[in-house]
Amino acid sequence: MWKLRCSFPGDRSSPWGQDVFSLNGHAGRHIWEHNSMNVSNEDTAVIERLREHFELNRHNQTHSSDALVRLQYEVLREARGRAMKTAPPPRSAYDPSSRTTESPLSQDIVNQALRAGIDYYQGLQDDDGHWPGDYGGPMFLMPGLIIALYVTNKLDHVLSEPHKVEIRRYLRNHQNEDGGFGLHIEGHSTMFGTVLCYVAMRLLGISPDTSSPVDNDNSMVDALSWIRARGGAVSVPSWGKFYLCVLGVYEWDGLNPVPPECWLLPYTLNPLHPGRFWCHCRMVYLPMSYLYGTRATAQPTEITEHLRKELYIDDYECIDWIKTRNWCAEEDLYYPHPWIQDLIWSGLSKVEQVIVKTSPGTWLRGIACKLAMEHIHYEDENTRYIDIGPVNKVLNMLCCWFENPEGVAHFKHLSRLHDYLWVAEDGMKMQGYNGSQLWDCAFAVQAIVATGLAAEYGDCLRAAHRYLDQTQVQADCPGELMKWHRHISKGAWPFSTRDHGWPISDCSSEGLKAVIELGKLGPALTGPPIPVSRLEDCVNVILSYQNVGTGGWATYENTRSYPWVEIVNPAETFGDIMIDYSYVECSSASLQALANFRVQYPHSQYNDRIEKSLTAGRKFLLSIQRSDGSWYGSWAICFTYGTWFGIKGLVATGSTYETCSCLRKAVRFLLSKQMACGGWGESYLSSQKKKYIQLEGNEPHVVNTAWALLGLISSGQATRDASPLHRAARSLMRMQQSNGDWPQQSIMGVFNKNCMITYANYRNIFPLWALGDYATSVLSMKHEDDKHGPERNH
C-alpha cells in the first residue's frame, strides 16, 4: 500500500539518502513509500476499486481524482481533529422549484456549503501546513526519467517493483484509443508522446510480442503500430530526438546543433545569449548542450538493439539521419520552424563539423563543456538537487553521471528523484515540478479568509501560516548573480518548497497577499506574524521584477531579450519558450500584492516606488487586453482565468465599472460566456487555439465558474445586476458533493500554450473562494440594503 510522507528526509539508510540537504527541515517535501506490511484486505479492496473505476472510465474521464492521497488523509480526520462537522445543504434548500435561479440565496445556506467545503478541505492539509496534491499531466516527463535511469544503470536501484507496476499502470491508463499517447493526459496522440512512452514501457520490461503475459491488452502492439503507420520515429520532435540520441537509438547527426559554445559568447549587447532566455528554456538547453557537445550516449544493450529495429521503417544503418533533422510529425507540430531557423541550423551544423575536427575546435569545445558543467553544478547546489523542473532535473543528473559516474553529484541527484513522483488511482506519474505546495497554500489561505469564517478554522490557518513562514526565501543565491544569470531572491516565495528556491513574481505576490490577510486576523488566531522587514524584502523583489519597457511582470526574472528571439525556438511542440514574457497573471498578482501592502503599511519606505509601479503596471494590463474584453491566461485555462486576473489588477489600481471602459468590456466578456445553468466551462483547446472554446457537452466546470464569479464580484456586479452571480453560486453549489468536496473535472493548468498540467487542489480552493466572496460581498450587501431599506438606496 502506498503512503505519502511529507516533510520527510527520505531513507537515510540508502547510499544516496545520506546526502539530502534541506534549508528548513524538508518542509513540504513529498515522498511516496510502498509498504505491503499490515495492510488489511479491506484497504486493498478499496484501492483496487478506485483503480478499476478509473481504468473503466479512462477514455471519458482522463483525469484522476487524486483519490489515494485523499483517502489517506480521510482516515486520519478524527485523530487529527479535522472531523466533518457540517454537511452540504440539500439541493432543495437553494434550488427550490418555487423560486427562480436568479433570486438571491440564503446567507445561512451558503455558509453551510462553505463550512462543509472547508471542513472537508482542511482535512487534506498536511501537518506541516501545506495541501499536497497531484501536479502531473504531461506524458513526456516519466519517459525522460526512465531513459535517464536506464542509461545510468540505476533503474532497478531507484525504482522498486511496486514503482514499476504503478508507472506501467499510469502509461497504460493514458494510452489513447488509437494506440498513441498525447503530449498530456487529455491530448490527441503525438509522435513525441507515443515514441517516448513506448520506449519507457520497453525499458520497464514490456515487449511488443503479443504473446507477452505482461502486455495482455496489446498496448505495446497498438503503440508501435501507431508509430510505424506514421513513418516511424524519424519524425519525432527535437526533444524526442534528443532523448533517443542519449539512449543510443537515434544518431546525433539527425539532431540540430545544441552547441555549448553559445555559453562562451559575450552577454552584453547579445540578445541571443542563453543567459537571456527564459530560465526554464535556459535550464533545459544548458544540460542538452553539454550532452550534445560530448555526444553522451548509452552503452548498447539487447533492448536498445531491439528498439533500433522496432522504431523505424528502414534499417537503422541505412537511414539518412541528416535528412531527418527537421522532420516532425504533423500531430506534433504546434510551432513550425521558420525557414530562417532551418537555414541557421543547417549552416551551423556544417560549420561545426569542420571546426570540432580541428585542435582549436576541440579545445574550445572542452572549455565550453566545462563552463556548462559549472552552471549545471551551480543550479544543482542552489536547488538542493531538485532543480527548476523535471526535464532539467534528469538531464542535469545525466550530465553529472557522464562527467563522473561515481561522483557525489550524481548520488545527490538520485536522492531527489522521488520528490517528483506522485501516485494516484491512475498510477505513478512524474510531476511538472516537485509540487505546487506554496502556490496552493497561498490561494487556500485567501479562499478560507474570504469566506468570513476564518475564526472557526484557527488550527488550519496557523498551520498554513507556519508553512508560508518556513517557505519564504531568506537569502539570495551565493556568488555573483550576473555571472550565473540569476535574479535576486531574498524575500520571495517559490512555487513549491524553500529547498527548490527559485523565486517567482506571482508566487511571491500570492504569498505576500496571504500573509497580509493572515496578519489582519491577529496572532491569537494565526500565530506570530512574519516581521515587516521580511515582507518589505518581498516587496523589493516584486518591484525588481517589473519590466521597465512594458510595465508588466514576467515569471522568474525580468524580460532579458526581444520577442523576435522566438524565431529560433527549436521546440516544435511548445510556444513562447525563448524569453520570459510579461503576463496578465504575474502582473495582476504583483499589482494586487503591492496595493494591499501599501494599504496595510502606509508608512513603508517602499510606498513611493509602489505608487509608480502601480501606474506602469496598470498601463500594461490595459495594453494587452483583447478587443473582446478578455485577457489570455497563459498558466491556466484560459480566458476565464486571465480575465479574472485582469479584472482584479484593474480594480487594485483604481478602476471602477463606472470610470473604466476596459473593465466594462471585461465584464461583458465574462457575462457573454455564462451558460444557461449559471456556470462556465472552458476547454483547454482555448489555450492552444487562442480563442474561447466551450467544453464538450456544454458542461459547467467548477474551477472556470469560480474564476468567472470571482471576477464579476470584484468588478462590482452586485450593484448593477446580481442575478448572474446568484445563478453562478447555485451552479457551484449544485456541483458540491455530499462530503463537501467538489468533483475533479477536465484539466485546468497549462504551460507554453500547448501542454496541460494538473492542479488537483483547484477544485476545492476556488469554489470556496468564489462562494466566500459571494457570501461576504454580495449577500451581506443585500442584507445591509434590506436592513436600511429605501434610505440606503436614496
Task: Report what the structure shows.
The chain is 48% helix and 4% strand. It contains 30 helices and 8 strands. It is globular, with a radius of gyration of 26 Å.
Tag the structure with descriptive keywords.
794 residues; disordered C terminus; 48% helix; two-stranded antiparallel ribbon; 30 helices; mainly alpha
Proportion in helices: 40-55%
Tally the helices: 30
Q: How would you write the strand order of the largest sheet? A: 1-2
Shape: globular
**For the terminal residues, how far apart are their CA atoms?**
65 Å
Roughly what fraction of the amino acids lie in strands?
under 5%
Helix vs. strand class: mainly alpha
Task: Give the radius of gyration.
Answer: 26 Å
User: What is the residue-mean pLDDT, rounded to a whole number?
Assistant: 94
Give the gist of this structure.
With 794 residues, the protein is mainly α. It contains 30 helices and 8 strands.
Which SSEs are present, and which pair or pack?
Elements lengths: L1 E5 L23 E5 L6 H17 L9 H8 L2 H4 L26 H16 L18 H11 L3 H4 L2 H13 L7 E2 L6 E2 H13 L15 H11 L8 H10 L31 H16 L7 H9 L28 H17 L3 H24 L7 H14 L4 H7 L6 E4 L2 E4 L6 H14 L7 H14 L33 H17 L1 H4 L5 H14 L38 H17 L6 H18 L14 H14 L8 H13 L11 H5 L12 H13 L8 H13 L13 E3 L3 E3 L4 H27 L1 H4 L1
Helix pairs in contact: 4-29, 5-8, 5-15, 8-9, 8-10, 11-14, 11-15, 14-15, 15-16, 17-18, 17-19, 17-29, 19-21, 19-22, 22-23, 22-24, 24-25, 24-27, 27-28, 27-29, 28-29
